[in-house]
Amino acid sequence: MAIITLTTDFGHKDHFIGAIKGTIYKELSDAKIVDISHSISPFNIQECAYILKNSYKAFPEGTIHIVGVDSEPTLENKHIAVQVDGHYFISANNGVISLITNEIKPDKIVEISIPNQAQGSFPVLDVFVQVACHIARGGKLDVVGKEFKALKELKDFAPRVTNDGKTILGNVIYIDNYGNVISNIQKSLFEAYRNGRNFEILARNKKISNIHDKYSDIIDFSKDKSKRKGPGDLLALFNSSGYIELAIYKSDLNTVGGASTLLGLDYRDTITINFL
Amino acid sequence: MAIITLTTDFGHKDHFIGAIKGTIYKELSDAKIVDISHSISPFNIQECAYILKNSYKAFPEGTIHIVGVDSEPTLENKHIAVQVDGHYFISANNGVISLITNEIKPDKIVEISIPNQAQGSFPVLDVFVQVACHIARGGKLDVVGKEFKALKELKDFAPRVTNDGKTILGNVIYIDNYGNVISNIQKSLFEAYRNGRNFEILARNKKISNIHDKYSDIIDFSKDKSKRKGPGDLLALFNSSGYIELAIYKSDLNTVGGASTLLGLDYRDTITINFL
Amino acid sequence: MAIITLTTDFGHKDHFIGAIKGTIYKELSDAKIVDISHSISPFNIQECAYILKNSYKAFPEGTIHIVGVDSEPTLENKHIAVQVDGHYFISANNGVISLITNEIKPDKIVEISIPNQAQGSFPVLDVFVQVACHIARGGKLDVVGKEFKALKELKDFAPRVTNDGKTILGNVIYIDNYGNVISNIQKSLFEAYRNGRNFEILARNKKISNIHDKYSDIIDFSKDKSKRKGPGDLLALFNSSGYIELAIYKSDLNTVGGASTLLGLDYRDTITINFL
To answer: What is the pTM of this model?
Structure first.
């Protein structure tokens, strides 16, 4: 039995998630449902895509991902089911799929059309759950819709490299639970242009001149404890998703603040890397 | 094996939910536990009832719902297990069951009395879990308590219709994750009195003259994009639970605000519908 | 198949939890994963220990607990897997295990060393999940590391009893979802020194002279409703974990406040019990 994942902006209080899970279990008593996140900022498909992009591959092939963000169908955003990279995604055609899977070409896309399709304000329950259960039972996409080509393409911010190859200009694409600031500059891009040069990362009025592989690498254990860097100090990191991230070591966003609040960096803000 | 659902005001941080789930799995290794919500406002049985009322029917018949809000037994609020509408509910007799199931007559109610019943401050763990596991194993209600008649009845706000049939006066009964304001006026009541007349919905100083079936119906796709209504605009909706709801299209309560904050509407406030 | 529990400070929004669950299911399709908490304050191993200490025993013996707080290995805090009290814990050797299991001597501790061990910033995914799956499949600890003796010991605040046996000085060790204030004074200690004497509990400028077994015991049902204590009144409790707790009956931290905000008590603050 395939896994069905849920990624929504429904929050954790309302009845929506309970209704969805009950409906799935009513149809498939041995379903395996996994919550990826229900705390996406309302209607924020960029955030939704970031979270799915960095988690969907962890699941077994054949997993069915319900994308419950901005899911109402409109004349311009039809409901679609997409088979791509060994996984299934069910969403409105609002661009979120193109942000999740980027350059990977979908194997199949169908525009969803099921009998007695409800037209209400809760399509995740009325439509996506039916389609997910159909796929989980081993059903074909052709049965729930007709083939469709016009996948809506949205472009994420892409980092720019200056003509002289001396500078990479990136943007903040996500701020995590610790207030750590994730840029869209990937390690592979950084390394491709670095050519062994020294560099400085500029974010607001801060400058960082090296990038660690894990947070605690900021600590130089050869130094006396009183002279080491540690909690509260700024660092740059190649994070576990392959992006360059700015972090405050052991930050707590709710008390002392994190990199986002301490640097004053928000979604879309610029991060610059100069090779020296 | 029946599903056991959990609806509590325990929040997501403390050890309570972990202890409950561990105890259930210790007793029933193949239990299926579903979280409906742990974010009910503390001791708010109206909110708890709204959420359960709108989700319990999605679950298969025979599902066991543990209601962990205001669950301490007192001389006035005994612990009860109720079989109603094909489902089981375990709660204190604080009125929450009458709010969840309204006019549906319970098939059976027992006042819980189990051997060595703990009398502490965590009855969901000490009592409800035992009863839920008993029912999940196919046990009878009679074994965990003696029949009981005095189900505590609480009345929800009911909408009033004026004698001339020209006005429905309703109240706000819930505010959801998006700040959308749900009234207690059901579509069926509205339609029963409408008789094809035009109408206006009054909420504070706002007036709305039509009701949509889904949020995006606020968009008139025949108009040029720059002239359409869209994000930030107010609308009324027959929502997925059958209530009239006031919403701001694509609102984000944490940033720009939702209908509740923008209209200044809170729980209990009045919403008026005048037929013209 | 053993249960795998997750206790982290990852929050509920980011992709971390989804990635962890997907990876576990990819390796063990019939795994049973239980979230204990993902809302630990960042890097707060005291809080993490309090929550695990009060929930792990509820799970069946053999349960595997992944501790995802302050989990990066350093020269001083290696990754360890510990078998203790019939359970398994996987964590960094940062002291959290000693706070969870206190005086219980571990049966076995290994310093984790697995082939191709990733050295990145997401060791819960890269290392702990592998070890948990190995144990869940019935594997031995010896296979994932070599025996290790130097379990880092942290001491929790311990209550002090004055020489004359007249006073117990305790501290706040946790504040729960309701704002209830949990002290480190256990019922057993209190009873051992009480000797039938009257007492007063002092917390800031408040004095309490009895301790209840459940919250609603504050209500004296023999009194007229208008003269009873009830919502908003302060009480002391032997809570379900055996600690003395100060609570406001039916408090809501987000609206009227709880014991922590109303008494002005925070983590570490002193609570005094004088025997009279």
So the answer is: 0.96
